[in-house]
Amino acid sequence: MKKIFVPVTVILVAILIGVMAYPSMHQEVPIHWSSGEADLFVSKGLAILILPILMLVSSLSIWLTNKYQGGKDNKKTINKTHNLSLVILFFVHLMILSFGLDVNLDNNFYVGIIVGIITVAVANPMQKTKPNAVYGLRTPWTLKDEKVWRKSNRFSGKLLFIVGLLIIGLSFVYPEFTTSVILILLVGALVISVIVSFGIYKKLSNSKA
């Protein structure tokens, strides 16, 4: 599950953002330029699918490669490289969508990109961090039990990774709503994380009783 979380999440979020952008996009979307002029257009239906399909095909290729070839160290290197390439393709996908929307990239857009990148960067190590006084989902019950901490922060880290991608994606598609998107998604992630964390605590407490 850990190995496929990043590819599955990136592909699903890319599809979701594409579906959300679709109704507002032009019928034809430029995907190639020559001398500063667009010279290749595709339908908007194809524009929202090109990169997700490419991501899916590359992910399946990597999965087959890992299954039949290479040792453990090779697999780690391949997976990290592939995850990075997926993130790059995700940004290219967002750029294609923005071309189809004639999006004006103002200050809100850049704020959204920065906040989204920071959220994604914070999310990954959060899944592996140990109880501490500074970093992680710190509640009375997570600090009380290391197992609750571990499960809660693993969930919260995955949720924040998804939220970070959504913030980045929606900043491309709806830059005028970036501030509201950031507040709603981050506050929502915090509330959901606390509720799920408390549920984990109660479940583990009941199992010990």
TrEMBL record:
The keyword RNA-binding does not apply. InterPro entries: DUF1648, SdpI, SdpI/YhfL. It comes from the Bacteria. The chain crosses the membrane at residues 45-64, 84-101, 107-123, 155-174, 180-201. One of its GO terms (biological process) is response to toxic substance. It holds the Pfam family SdpI. Residues 10-56 form the DUF1648 domain. Keywords: Membrane, Transmembrane, Transmembrane helix. This is SdpI family protein.
